[in-house]
Every structure is written in C-alpha cells, then in structure tokens.
# Entry
Amino acid sequence: MNALLIRKHGGPEVLTLESVPTPVPAAGEVLVRVRACALNGKDIWARTGPPGGRPTFPWKPRTLPFIGGGDVAGTVETVGSGVDEWKPGDRVFINPILSCGRCEFCLAGEQTMCVDYRIFGDHTPGGFAEFVVAPAHNVMRVPDGVPFEKAAIPAAYCTAWRMMITAGGLRAGEDVLVVGASGGVGTAAIVIAKMAGARRIFAVLGGAEKAKKAEAIGAIAIDHRDHPVFSERVLDLTGGAGVHLAADPVGAPTWQQTIRSLRRAGRMTICGASGGERPDFDIREIYQRHRRIIGAPMGNVSDLRAVMDSIFSGAIDPVLHAVMPLSNIREAHRILEHRLHFGKIVLVP
Ligand SMILES: [Zn+2]
# Structure
C-alpha cells in the first residue's frame, strides 16, 4: 500500500508517499481502507519534532519512521480472528482514544483519564495511508449517506464537545467566547455552542476573510488585528459583564485576555498550548472572581458518541476548510502551519 512516511524531522519536504507492506489485522483487530483522514496539529509536530524541542504528551520522543493521522473514516476491508461484529464493506470511523479498559478511570467511563491513555495515529501507526489496523472495539459505524470526510474529524469535535458541554457545562442563553476560533477545535466549538443554544458566541481570530466565515456559522467575530486586547472588546459587547464560558486552545499568548473576558464565576476550558504553555497571569483574577479553569484535553467515549451522533443526524455540520488528495499533504501542512485554514483539512488517499 501507499503510505505517508516521516523518516526524519524537517519541513514539509520530508513528507513522501512510499510503498510499504499492507498491515495484517491481528486477533481482535480490523483492517480499514482509509477513505478520509483529517490533519491535526500533532501531525505537524510529528513532522517537525516537538515545539521548542520539548516533548509533548506522552512526554517521550517519537520513534521514526512514523505514519501519522489519527482521524480516520473508511470501510472495513478484513477482520482478524475473533471479530464478529464487523464485516468487509462496513462504513466506519475510528475512535482515536486508546485506553486500558480496566483502570478506575476507564471503569468510570473516563477513557482519556486512563493511566495508560494513548492516541490512535499518535502512539500507533495512523491513517495517512491506504489501509490502517485498529482494535475492533475502537471502530464505530458511519451511517449510509454521511460523507466520509464529515466522519473523519473525531478528535477536534470530541475535544470541542468536552470543552463546551461536558466540562464547560454550557446552558442555553449563555454567552460564549472561543479563542483560536478559526482552527479545527475553535470552529467545532462554535457550531456546538450554536447547537446548544448559546446566546452570543464571540470568536477571536485573525483577518477579514476568517471573520466573514465565522459570522456565516453564527459567531460574532473579534479580529485580534483590530482588537489586540480582545478582552476589552468582549467586555464592551457584553455591557461590561463578560462571558459565562470561554474555550481557549491557544495557551500563553491568550490566557490573560481570556480570563479577563470571563464574568464572575465564569468557566474557562482549555485543551492545548499550541501558542505556548507558560502564561503570565495574576491568580487573584481567578479566585477573587470565583472563576474556574478546567482541563479538557479530549472527551471520553460518550462525548465522542454524542458529538458524532449530532453530526450524523445533521444537528451539527462540521466545518471543513478543504478536502484534498493525500498526495497534496505538503500543501496541507503549509496551510495548517501558517494558520491559513478555517476548519478542518481532510486528506483523501
Ligand atoms: Zn484505563
């Protein structure tokens, strides 16, 4: 099969399609023919090496060569022994959460708190290839009529669901702030907040074109190029009150402003530190105003089920920046790295 191998760290030019042996599913595994696979920030870091040379989760260096891509949708090609719930031709997506199934957190249904939590396509070979193997219990059905590219985005949508609904506790009528609003998680947070009945969704992003796209999906755009201190704009637009819930996937450059955009007792959910992991802020701005900061690195399996069912029923329409052939992977990396996208970039083998 053809697969996109990373043999060494570097720029997009290190990405090359190569012919490699097609994997064979072991007992309890299925072989999936990849029809679509979304690109994530972690795929950029898999290519460049970790940001700043500091290993990210799970805090150890990756071994090369490596096939990335954790957001897979496709069809079952063959099954390993002992797998009777899937048959060739079934339309599926892969749940990217790998967990032990036995620890106290798994037993409580919190698979991403697992003591052995890993991510498909990050700690295992992923879906930037024609075929990929996955544990049969990580495979979930895609209904007929749902295009594969709309099913190939579980990681960002599961994370955004956790940030808005499960951890964020969003209630209808609340005001929401989404920082980094043009990214995969940011755009997902906007459409989820809209579905959940948020009153106003303020979207912090850069550039008029992205602002127009954010307004088209129901957000009120705040262009940080016009409003570098975006919290002042949020406070202006909310009559000085601030928002009930803010989602910040960016980190150090935005934390201070995100915190200042919160109402008293407002909640801030965080899932990443793509802009830096050591923010500078005054802790009194948290406790004196009864604010809460809540970690939401990715949702659990029931969060994933809920958000994917919302997509499959049409309640949420995932925001796709582009669907591109896998052979255009270098261009896809450039778009994501230079933040030229609005929504997910999906690659098709
Ligand atoms: Zn576990």
Observations:
- The two ends are 10 Å apart (CA to CA).
- The pocket of zinc ion is lined by residues 99-100, 102-103, 105-106, 114-116 (CB under 6 Å).
- The chain is about 25% helix and 25% strand.
- The longest strand covers residues 29-38.
